[in-house]
Amino acid sequence: MAPRSHATARQVRLGTELRRLREAAGLKAREVAGLLNSTSAQISQVELGFAGVSEERVRRLAAHYACTDEALIEALVAMATDRTRGWWEEYRGVLPPVFQDTAEVEHHATSLREVVVTYVPGLLQIPDYARAVYTYVHPDLPESELTSWVEHRMMRRTVIQGDNPVRYETLIHECALRVRVSNRSVCRAQLQQILDEIEQGHATVRVIPFDQDGFGGAGISMMYAGGPVPQLDTGLRDAPTGVAFIDAEAQLKHLRRLFLKMRAASLDPTASRDFIHRLTKEQ
Predict the structure, then answer these.
(1) Less Cβ around it within 10 Å: N or C end of the chain?
(2) 197 within 8 A of 160, measured Cβ to Cβ
């Protein structure tokens, strides 16, 4: 099978986990290649996400690596054999790859936790709000591309609104709720959308108010996607070059601690709903 020209974040993650198991077993790629009647170059392609791997090979590798975590093995097998072509595939080659990677991570997540300070979370945005943000940040974007960007963002909402919605909790700073990215009408409609999502049970929203003492997390924006097993959790952080996907346990642990610390600085869900309701009346 020819190597992939582009590996998705999910394919890269599968390869990363297989490499970690190999390294934990103290084996070199060439030693594993002999087991599979392959080459070290082909093993490297698998571990980089540029080559697929069958269920039978995943199980053989796990056994050779003395991995006894059955839940992890089954999760890796599911990743290796998954042939899902989600709605995001329609945008491949049209939008930057990170758009599809983000949607795919969200689709496979067992839970989503998010922190935003300057913008309303993408999963809660309305079209006019998303368009205003994209237009401001990318003023030279052609209208046809801008339309696709907004459509993609709206489609992402299916992960919390569909037939099998994922559990979603978000911490939103008051700044994001007050910044008028468009006009008063759009701002009011956006706040009402958040209230509607709360009312329908699609999202648990907690607001971090301006008057919260000791809040030093203004520069933090992140999403934490729970995996089928804890080892496959994924963090997403804004970076200068785009979204950074985080899978190292030390960094994931740091993100979990940050989320809990910021949650402690937020209002409870009921008080947050009332807070947003008051803001809506002010618009």
Answers:
(1) N
(2) yes
pTM of the entire predicted model: 0.93
**3-state secondary structure at position 114:** strand
- Measured over the CA atoms of residue 205, residue 258, residue 225 and residue 138, the dihedral's sign is positive
DSSP single-letter state for residue 268: P
3-state secondary structure of 51: coil
Distance CA 79, CA 63 (A): 17
Number of neighbouring beta carbons within 10 Å of residue 281: 8
| 205 secondary structure, DSSP code | E
CB count within 10 Å of CB 186 equals 18
The owner of tokens 């907690």 is: 206
Sign of the Cα pseudo-torsion (218, 221, 225, 230, in order): negative
Average pLDDT of the residues of the chain:
94
What is the sign of the dihedral through the CA atoms of 115, 120, 125 and 131?
negative
- Taking only the tens place, the pLDDT of each residue in 98-122 is 999 999 999 999 999 999 999 999 9
Which SS3 state, helix, strand or coil, does residue 206 take?
A: strand
Distance CA 258, CA 189 (A): 30
